[in-house]
Amino acid sequence: MRILLPLILLVLSGCTPREVAQAQTPESTVVAGAPADSSYYRLASWNVRNLFDDVDDPYRDETPSTEEYQSKLRELAKVIGEVDADFIALQEVENLASLSEVNSLLGNPYPQVGLLEGNDQIRGIDVAFLSRLPVKEVVSHASLDLPLQDGDPQVHHFSRDCLEVRLDTEPSVVVLVNHFKSARGDSKKSARKRRAQAEGVLQVAEAIPSEEALFVVGDLNGRQDEWSLEPLFQRFQDPFAGLPPETRITHRYRHGGSALDHILLDPEAAQIASNARIWSEIAKDTSDHNPVSVELLISPAKEAAKRVWAESR
User: Is the pTM of this model over 0.85?
Assistant: First the structure.
């Protein structure tokens, strides 16, 4: 486990509360889960699909031309700007420089930027985040030994990381950012690895104090009814559970679509979360995944200082 320290601390930038007309938050939720001065803030997750820069490196990825790279950055900035989340978890980001360029194109609305170089030694893609909310702590679980699965001769690790991001809010919010193993190749083998990663997330979750609101987010590369993700959907609440299958599409492919991207809630998180949404139209020209989001009724403890959270492996 690695605890990341901020590399840069510069100027202060405030968090902008969001008034969300659509959010139907029961009165009991307001009383039980959030302080009286709370406002709505948006938490989102999105697999941006292959954000590689135009510099060739040893990883097995496609190096875009400078023109293609700049076009990708502009497209991502447009979508992220439309989602307008106060905290957005991102998957398939190559490096911190690319993430910072997206933020710059937006006018640097996110004072807190984070990315780790995780376990993906083939494509070099990582999990990351942008935040207008103050971040108190970032913890990597990339080196965690995952539970051994029947039929696997060796212990697995997270495909990229299970990145633990603790927000300085009331109530305290913890976001576990994930990007599980894809279903490509040996389907049984990949399912066992996703199962191991799901059980690993539970291990991480068990160490988090019960009074904190815990969100498990990211591209889990599996549907809610799959064996590989069963440990998570038995333990956490799914705010998208009421959506019909034809509208619960977060990943598009040649012959249809499915729900691979998730936001899961523990009981404390469920008290402050509402208005689950799949952004089904805005990203179709940029990624094969749709952003997903929920609204949180919380109160930031302080203004968000400008920080970069990063670590090389």
Answer: yes
